[in-house]
Amino acid sequence: MTKAMGRIGVFICHCGTNIAGTVDVEKLAENLRSYPGVVHSVDYTYLCSEPGQSLIKEAIAGKGLDGVVVAACSPSLHEATFRRASEEAGLNPYRCEIANIREQCSWVHEDKAEATHKAERIIQAVVEKVRLDEPLTPLKVPLTRRALVIGGGIAGIQAALDIANSGYEVVLVERGPSIGGRMAQLSETFPTLDCSQCILTPKMVEVGRHPNIELLTYSAVLEALGYVGNFKVKILKKPRYVIVEKCTACGKCTKVCPVVVPNEFDRGLSCRHAIDIPFPQAVPTAYYLDEESCLGLFPLVCDKCARACDAGAIDYDMQPEVVECEVGAIVVATGYELYPVEQTGSLGWGKHADVVDGLEFERMLSASGPTGGEMRRPSDGKVPKEVVFIQCVGSRDPEGGLPYCSKICCMYTAKHAMLYKHKVPDGQAYVFYMDIRAGGKGYEEFVQRAIEEDGVLYLRGRVSRVFQEDNKVIVWGVDTLSGKEIEIAADLVVLATAMVPSQGAMDLARKLRIATDEYGFYSEAHPKLRPVESLTAGIYLAGAAQAPKDIPEAVAQAGGAASKVVSLFSAEELLQEPITATIDEERCSGCGICVPVCPYQALGLDLREGRVKVTEALCQGCGACVVSCPSGAVQQRNFTDKQVLAMLTAGLGMEG
Amino acid sequence: MRIAYFPGCTLSTKAKGFNDSARDSAKALGLELVDLEQWNCCGATFPLLTDNMLDLTGPARVLISGRQQGGRLVTACTICYNVLRRTNRVIRENEDGREKLNLFLEAEYKGDLEVLDLLQVLRDEVGFDKIWEAVKRPLDGLKVAAYYGCMVLRPPKEVAYEEDPENPCALDDLLAALGAEPVNYPYKGECCGAYLIVKSPQVAGELSYTILDSAQRNGAQLVVTNCPLCQFNLDRQQGLMGQRHAGFQPIPILYFTQLLGIALGLDSGDYGFEKHYIDPCSLLASRNLIAI
Amino acid sequence: MRVKLSSEALQSDFVKKVEEISGQDLLACNQCGKCSAGCPVAFAMDILPSQVIRLLQLGEVEEALNSEAIWFCAACQTCYTRCPRGVDLTRIMEALREMAMRERGDYLDIGAIPPEELAEFPQLAFIGGFRKYTS
Questions:
Q1: Which terminus of chain A has a smaller tally of CB atoms within 10 A, N or C?
Q2: Chain C: residue nearest B235 by CA?
């Protein structure tokens, strides 16, 4: 065997019965012994184990192997493992390749003879690749140790604080005028019944004061180019028309503003003015002028607020500003919205004032809400004595809504019922449920409290219809436990509607080039083991934007995302895979076709030299430029045309 | 405008008033209902067993007959409408079913006939504003409760022509166009009991009672309906209702086309009022809508 | 009396027959009860419509066939319209009626209908009755 053929070792994994059950691994090992260039060929039960890896290392040393093919599971699982093992034994890790004979063979075929034959072809193809692999060295690329957190709810706040407290700079972007998110809208939180604002505002203040956090509220991310360690982000700062540093939040401007519009913070249950503050503890503590509801700014129609402002904080000439910043990691924590219930016509939301959803009820309970915390129903302000809570509205409803469970409704409904009873002790609360999902710490006991201490009647069954009759809201449900149809003449009905991703989540996903599932929730890299990372390196997920969850989970996930960011930043240098594009100077004619094809802008046309050059630090090895080049001048390291053709030839069983 | 029309057996006999008033008022609005040359009973209920192809042959024949006379077929009886629409869908979407059926039918049918309800045609093709203009005897604020029954509302994906089948409004809008005051009450689409009257008049009676009671509590002086079986249940059972529920006041039940004909100024002499159990004439005469 | 469950009972031919005739997947029903909540005739039934399916899910087909509930169903389609899982309960009711009648004979004795009724009721009522209550 000539040196050019190489000294390649083939290691075939049984993977228990995952591979060996469908593929004759011993036969494979034997057959491959006579393949050109293969000087060592064995099979083993679990190559990823310590002894398995030792087997490979010993063979590299003992037989002087200059290339290794591990025929096993997908490279996404153990390529790193085997490359590290090879490196430890003195072999360049890029001369170690994986032949996937599990996901691409044993797991998708049943006929043993055919599967074995296919596995052999796959391994032969990879041997051809290894034969021509260059021994590469990873690139060291610059790493910007600054993070971007998108979304200023509890998850975004926690992530920002954790990263900032580790000593790194954070830019926190929030599209509303204040941070705080949904948690700021809640009255009390389960299971402790802590006042939501009271436990949230210390964190909000900490964010506002933190020397490492640059808080950009009333802002939105326009663009995020680049890749892990090197993102270039453009952020639009919408004009607030109020100078934050000067505003004292005295409120004189609001009092003179003639415009009255529905208050989004109160979910439409109360009004606000064009110039207003979302809630008293807002951070930044400053008012904002909503351009859309204002009578007019260009030209200026009314200037009552500016004239009322003693601090001279109002500036009608503010312009939108686009800021650019460079960050090394992004945490996406854009939160949730509630399912619009107009489609569930038979439950009456949107038709009757006294049918409200969960967030509306939170505002009704809240001391800073439309009724100052007094329990009054929207239609006539009377105190409701019979209140019906309906769970699973729009959730667990493949036909009429969303198929998934929204996770938090059982708990917040129990909380709602309890808080209602605390305010109206002689009232009666009813909850229509299918199951009670109370798995968190103290949650089951909390629900029991609602039943035993506050006399909430839990009826097991869904509701078929809600309609108005005189000044009552009639609810037709069922109690499957007793086998009885139930009718309740309620004063108020609260619907626990499904959690859906915030508006604009899909658009943001496109801008960041991260994946979402069919409902718009951001996809995690692995549902079990990688819950805080997106599939895009350097972009992490936190909070309800990834899936319905409650506050402790959101906070934990935010901490997890922050720790990923911090561990990324704590590396001395960022290593980049060297499977980058190279350009054959003699073949490149400088046509420039490849330049716009590159998603990372790693290619540039050097007009002086008349050819294209690669900025290796930017190249992510996607291969798009290789495909686009008409003269084959661009090649990808270790994925050259010569290698691909050799792999095809071997894979198809043809003579080379 | 001419359109093929399927009267159905009940409209041709026991509910002739519905048929006559439908034809009359349609004609006055420029819509000529042309009887199918050949037709048979639609079967009155849509067969729900997956292996019951035999019961689909009846309505399939009606569809074929309709197809031979053009691309569209309208019916006034909503039970016929429901059966024909659902049968049509099976033929269109279920290839196996269609093949089996076609073995037993005289002509091959692919499900390409459009089946419409009379109220739907009045709404979409004649237009309620045109009807308003044609009204000669406005109903002058008469409080009328529209009763839709089940057949034009469910299952919504298969038969409904309302934007929100849980809150239907076509019949209410027609009543408003005639000058009446449509009554809003929650039992517009709740079942009257239908064929349960054959098994248990008491249960059917209770269902009909809850509907009428709700309509009356919301001020209705008259109820209109679009189905002969609903009309029968709501009308005939009132004797029983009076016995079982003290204080129950009888209320006339009309077909919407009868009221439409009156409002258009047509001669309602042969609309069959004498066949109704609760006499509608005294109410109508007191509002100067008919002459006694 | 305890209901004795076993794989035999749950996967009986009887249960499979109901699924076949109705074309419905009995396991799709998660017993939420929405059908019962909206059924206009449930007040007259001995068991709730959702309980009829539950009996079938437990393999208790005979008990379901013996219920009065299946004969009170008016096929108004409210249950099917509102079911979150798309189970067509009206078809299941029809299948049970059919199975009961195939076993025991017609539910409605046509000869026993009083002639006054025959003369008075519209055909629709009888044809509907014949379709539902005779096999």
A1: C
A2: C121
